Structures are given as structure tokens and as C-alpha cells.
User: What shape does this take?
Amino acid sequence: MIIIFLGPPGAGKGTQCKVLVDRYRLRHLSSGDCLRRERENDTDLGRRAQSFMDSGRLVPDELIVSMMIKEMENVNGKAGLVLDGFPRTLGQARELDKALRQVGKKIDAVLNLQVDDKELEQRITGRRSCPACGAAYHITFNRPQKEGLCDSDGAALVQRSDDTRGVVRQRIKTYHQQTAPLIAYYKQKNILHQLDGNTEIEKVTAQMCRLVDQLAVD
Assistant: This one.
């Protein structure tokens, strides 16, 4: 089974993808995680992608496609996949379809997690993390015991450079302009399923699992 998870930044795709991985034994491939790993390892791709990510723009298709196809090829052939953050453009989607056809595979379902823009901005700009242990917090939903300090080690919490308000608005705008057309593309293929991401995490999970359980039956 290969599932694509669509949704704007901050929609909660990562949280729901973890449920898919644990419940259905799928392998989670996040384009964002892969790109950050490339940057941390100071690879050529990571250096080329840096300026795009920091300004909230999408990394060019040719960089993303080559990276993600390589990641997919490294997965055990029998393992199912959930793709998070890829594809993000029509060009990427078509290249992915082409690569899968060459190995006799296809996309089984596309889950589109819908969240209002104002809610997205609040979720993303409020995120904070500990630079020492990596613990995650939120200034509204998951506050530390002492403001601005990690509960575990007392380190000063930091905000990611791409989580600032200006960058977040650009990221959301970029999503609507370049990624939203994928919804029509996959709807035409009759594999698109909508999820309401404005509600509680548990309710989103329930929606998603009902859909995937039905796919497994079919």
C-alpha cells in the first residue's frame, strides 16, 4: 500500500502519519525530514535547498524528486509507504507516477488534511523546541513549566527560523499556489479522500483510520 498525505504546513500530517506507520506497518517518508537531514549532513543537496527552505519557498522539483525516489528505492520492496510532503507540485506528482509505473506500483490513496489558514498560523508560530534534548513545546497548547525553558534540562527554548510569522504566511501562500492543484489531479484519478483537520487530533485519527480500513478491505 502506498498512501500520499497532502496538507498545508502545520496541519498535523506528521502526527497522523505516525498512526499510519504504527497501525498499518507502513514506512513513513517525510520530504521535510529528508531535507533537514541533508542540511545537517551538509550535503550538496542540503546546501542548495537551504536558501529555499529558509525563505518559505518550495525546493525545486528536480532536487526533491531525485531525493525522494532514492529514499523510496532504499525501502524494502514489500513494505508499504506513506509519503508526507511529497509530491507537492504537479510536476513532482507526474514524475512519481512515472517512477512507480516502471516498477509496477501505484498510489492507492491520497489523504488531504484540510485546516483553516488562521489556525495553521497559530499552530506553527507558537512552536518552540529545546536545542539540547529536542523536546517540543507550544506557547498555547503545550507550555513548559517555566516560560521559555525546557522542563527536562532548563535550556532556553528556540523557534525555528522557518516558523516566524512572515515565513509561515509565505509558506501557506506557496502551498495554496503550487500544491493545492494536486487535489484536482488526484480527484480526477478517483483516489482523493478529504479529512477535516480543524478538529481534535483523535477525531482526525478516527476519520483517517476508517478510510484506510476500508481501503484494506477493498
About this structure: DSSP finds nine helices and seven strands in the chain. The radius of gyration is 18 Å. The first strand starts at residue 2 and ends at 6.
